[in-house]
Design brief:
Blueprint: H1 3-6, H2 17-36, H3 41-55, E1 65-69, H4 76-86, E2 90-92, H5 97-102, E3 107-109, H6 121-130, E4 136-142, E5 148-154, E6 159-163, H7 169-172, E7 175-179, H8 186-189, H9 199-212, H10 228-246, E8 251-254, E9 259-262, H11 266-278, H12 282-285, H13 291-302, H14 307-323, H15 325-365, E10 371-373, H16 374-385, H17 392-402, E11 405-411, E12 414-419, H18 421-430, E13 461-462
Parallel strand pairs: 1-6, 1-7, 2-3, 3-6
Antiparallel strand pairs: 4-5, 8-9, 10-12, 11-12, 11-13
């Protein structure tokens, strides 16, 4: 279902002009992104909302980084340039610490490779706090009269980044990640990037000027520039915690296991949440409570989006809610899906990093490029990590996925590979593994073989595309 089907076309007369402008601006942004980018629909939605929310970033407590991860010629640079143009920002490929804290405009950082390197440690530390309002950098400056003064710079601002190799784990935890695929749609890829002459972009820039005239998105969201909505959310959670501590919960007894489990059914959750909502001192915040606002908070609560993830997506939820209640529900569902995908990818990446570290140990132990059984690599890796998921099948696929095999061949019982130590060390550095701390393994020499131990003959080599079972 398209976004236009979810956003109500007809608006009630009492809705403010700022909301109408926000609604129009979102739809125009989607049209612009549709024109220049071949992306998944849900990613277009997130990018459009991120751009729109960036206009109001000063009204938020935190604002997520937008991280574009893809291979070459996938549209990363085009999207960054488009974002930078729409936000009157700076697009750079050589970000320095000084640029980060001395410039207040939105930043788009292209070719942001090797962020995990030691050389970029100071920049990385600055970025780790620049997503949250209140973080500052202080620098000493000498005046002509020799007096030393301290200048304070705020680093908080909208930042979009793109690279091929991936992001530092800590920094990625502050990002909403969009993975771009290479497009074969020539109607999109062959467009020339003359953004300043595009009539839709010119029109959006006019919308943007109108939006910037207002210090608020709406009375509901930001009252007189103060971030009351965050305080309301906190009040609801505090009330809910008190109610959970004082109310008698339903107890379900499972007879088959003879255990007692305490739980809340859906009806009880809504009743308690509604009670917590009603206990908020709404007059203090000058906000009129209503059913839509209740449903907004309840949808977030039931989404299972917690902690840092909620902190990052909350600004986008607020903007989406101003556009339409049904549309906001869709955006929350998209966020939940992306968070689940991110956790699954993170699990795979963490296992790959563990395996790369092990391969570094192996290559330091055996610098010569000998044939080694995949089963032996799996046995030793499992012995070190003590994890049941490690087996020959996973190791074989990981070697192929990481691209660290030089050769592969079948033997009568399994397969053997020659490891590419140069690629292993190169990939290890990219993911932040300190090679100086890697210690050699203690492995029996007989386990590294050059011939088939059962036949005494050299086994035939397999093509690199052979699928390991």
């Amino acid at each position: 279902m398209e976004d236009k089907d979810l956003i109500p076309v007809e608006k009630e007369e009492q809705i403010e002009e700022t909301i109408l402008t926000l609604y129009d601006a979102y739809n125009l942004l989607k049209k612009i992104i549709d024109k220049y980018m071949d992306m998944k629909e849900e990613d277009k939605t997130i990018v459009a909302l991120w751009i729109l929310a960036a206009i109001f970033h000063e009204n938020f407590v935190t604002f997520p980084y937008l991280f574009l991860n893809a291979s070459k010629e996938s549209g990363k640079s085009r999207l960054l340039k488009l974002i930078s143009h729409l936000l009157n920002g700076i697009c750079t490929t050589n970000l320095t610490e000084a640029v980060l804290f001395r410039q207040r405009t939105p930043l788009a950082i292209d070719e942001f490779e090797n962020i995990s390197s030691k050389e970029k440690r100071n920049l990385r530390e600055l970025l780790n706090m620049a997503y949250k309002k209140g973080g500052v950098v202080q620098r000493a400056r000498k005046l002509p009269n020799e007096k030393i003064v301290i200048d304070t710079f705020e680093v908080y601002r909208p930042i979009a980044m793109a690279n091929i190799s991936g992001m530092d784990d800590v920094l990625e935890d502050r990002c909403i990640t969009i993975i771009l695929d290479k497009s074969d749609n020539r109607y999109i890829t062959d467009l020339i990037e003359v953004f300043e002459n595009d009539q839709d972009i010119v029109k959006f820039m006019e919308y943007k000027k109108n939006l910037e005239k207002f210090s608020v998105v709406s009375v509901m969201t930001f009252s007189k520039g103060n971030i009351y909505i965050y305080q309301v959310w906190n009040d609801i959670l505090c009330n809910l915690r008190t109610l959970n501590d004082t109310n008698t919960l339903y107890t379900l007894t499972t007879l088959t296991t003879l255990t007692t489990q305490t739980t809340l059914n859906t009806l009880t959750t809504r009743d308690l949440f509604k009670k917590a909502f009603s206990l908020v001192d709404w007059e203090k915040y000058n906000i009129e409570p209503n059913e839509s606002l209740l449903n907004f908070f309840l949808k977030i609560w039931q989404s299972e989006i917690h902690g840092r993830d909620l902190e990052l997506y909350f600004p986008l939820f607020l903007i989406a809610f101003e556009i339409g209640e049904d549309f906001c529900s869709k955006v929350i569902d998209i966020a939940k899906m992306k968070i689940i995908e991110k956790k699954e990818e993170s699990l795979i990446e963490n296992r790959d990093i563990m395996f790369l570290s092990f391969l570094c140990q192996w290559c330091k132990t055996y610098p010569e490029e000998n044939w080694v059984k995949v089963s032996e690599l799996a046995r030793k890796f499992k012995e070190l990590e003590q994890d049941e998921w490690i087996n020959s099948k996973w190791v074989g696929r990981a070697l192929k996925r990481l691209g660290v095999r030089k050769s592969l061949r079948r033997i009568s019982r399994g397969r053997e590979v020659i490891l590419n130590s140069e690629k292993i060390f190169e990939k290890a550095k990219k993911v932040g593994i300190d090679l100086d701390e890697i210690q050699p393994l203690e492995i029996e020499e007989s386990k590294v073989v050059g011939i088939n131990p059962w036949t005494g003959q050299k086994a035939p080599e397999l093509s690199d595309n052979y699928f390991e079972e």
